[in-house]
Each structure stands twice: as C-alpha cells, then as structure tokens.
Amino acid sequence: MLERLKTTKREGWRRFGINHGESISDHMYRMSIITMLCPGSLASKIDMNRCIKMALVHDMAELLVGDITPVDGVLKSEKSRRESTTMDFLCKDLLGNVGGGDAGVEIKRAWQEYEDSETLESHFVHDVDKMELILQMLEYEKSHDGRIDLGEFTHVANRIVLPEVKQWCDQALEDRKAYWESIGKTPTGYQNAEQGQDAEKKKMSDEYYSGQYANGNHKEQ
Ligand code: ZN
C-alpha cells in the first residue's frame, strides 16, 4: 500500500509538462530532512520528533485519495473529509491489530496534528511543506534551463509564518532571482509574488496551502 506514495506523482508539476517529477514520498522524505535542519533558535522551542513524524505522514492519505490540487475544483472541506476517512481506514482497519494498534494511533495522531494546524510544531511543518515546494520549483526551473517558468508557485512563500523559515525561503527566492538574471530572463513571480495569478485562483490556492481551513474551520493566525 505504501508503495503507492512512491509511484504517485505530485500533480502540481504536471500542468507544466513535468511528467516524471517527484512522488509524494519524495516530497515527504525531503521535508523530514529539512525539518531536522531546523535552526537552533526554533529547535529549542519545539518537539522535533513530532515534527519529523508529521512531515513523514502528512500527505499519506494521498496514496488512496490522490494529490488533489487547487485547480481540481474540489473544496478543501471535501478534500479533508476524504483524507480523514482514508487515514481512519489505514490507521484503524489496517493497522488496528499491528503492535496492539499503537502504531496506527500514533500515525493518525501525527496526521491530525498537522491537519488541525494549531500547535507551533504543526505551523513549522506547514512552513516546511511550502519551503520544500519552493526548492523543488527552483530545481525544476534550473534543470529545464529556464524553459519552464514556475513562478505561479512563489506565492506560497507569502503564507510562511515562522521567521526562521521565512528567512530560508527568502534566500531561496534570492537564488531564483540570481539564476534567472544569469540567463538574461525575467520570470513571473519575480517582483510581485502574486503576479500572473487571477484573484480567484490565488484565493483557492492560498486556502489549500495555508492549512488554516482544516476541517472547514477558518482560523486566522
Ligand atoms: Zn506536503
């Protein structure tokens, strides 16, 4: 079953013709490592084990639900419902008798903490989720020698909450700027991260990436 996380591609890149891109587990694996690279000032305030577990399981439901992206027209509340049902199936039906059921309970707990997005740990992992996306965006632009402009993804940087991650992300966006300058082009998302996106598409995308619409409850931070 978990193999599906290795074989299911992240959908966002396909629209740009990147068909052999990263899988869901590729994304979660690198997020786990980025989480471990947390700066000391933040690491001393958070429970790192919980963060790493969240990074490892937060998109696990996609092995059955698929990677639903903002452009798919599925409401965030419906996406949440499908994923929650899937996690119950995995953690209770399949893992309920494994090791006395403890592993299933722990996986669901980590997934739920990320989904609820109420703890500092979950805010950090949500930020890392966006950071990983920005890094991958930049890598795809470079590996395609600037023929693909993925600037529409840069707006997720605006939703990063913690200053430590914001700083990482600003550095990555500076690198992006330097890269495009080096090949004599100006990509979208260059001066204004929201450039090139119509308002409706952006709003929907923000809701998806904000993590604040968990279970349909909108919580402003
Ligand atoms: Zn993710």
Textual characterization of the structure:
- The chain has 221 residues and is mainly alpha-helical.
- It has one domain: Orthogonal Bundle (Hypothetical protein af1432).
- The chain is built from 10 helices and no strands.
- It has helices spanning 3-7, 24-36, 40-43, 48-57, 62-65, 76-94, 102-116, 120-143, 163-182, 199-210.
- α6 runs antiparallel to α7.
- The chain is globular and about 60 Å long.
- The N and C termini lie far apart (36 Å).
- Residues 192-197 and 212-221 have low confidence and may be disordered.
- It binds zinc ion.
- Zinc ion binds next to loops.
- Zinc ion (ZN) binds next to loops.
How do the SSEs run, as a string of H and E? Answer: HHHHHHHHHH
Please name the CATH topology: Hypothetical protein af1432
Helix content: 55-70%
So how many helices? 10
Weakly predicted, low-confidence segments: 192-197, 212-221
Tell me the structural class.
mainly alpha
Instruction: Characterize the main sheet.
Output: none
**C-alpha end-to-end distance:** 36 Å
Which cofactors or ions or other ligands sit in this model? zinc ion
What is the CATH architecture term?
Orthogonal Bundle
Tell me, what is the CATH class? Mainly Alpha
- Whole-number tally of structural domains: 1
Q: What overall form do the CA principal axes indicate?
A: globular
Mean pLDDT: 88
Strand content: under 5%
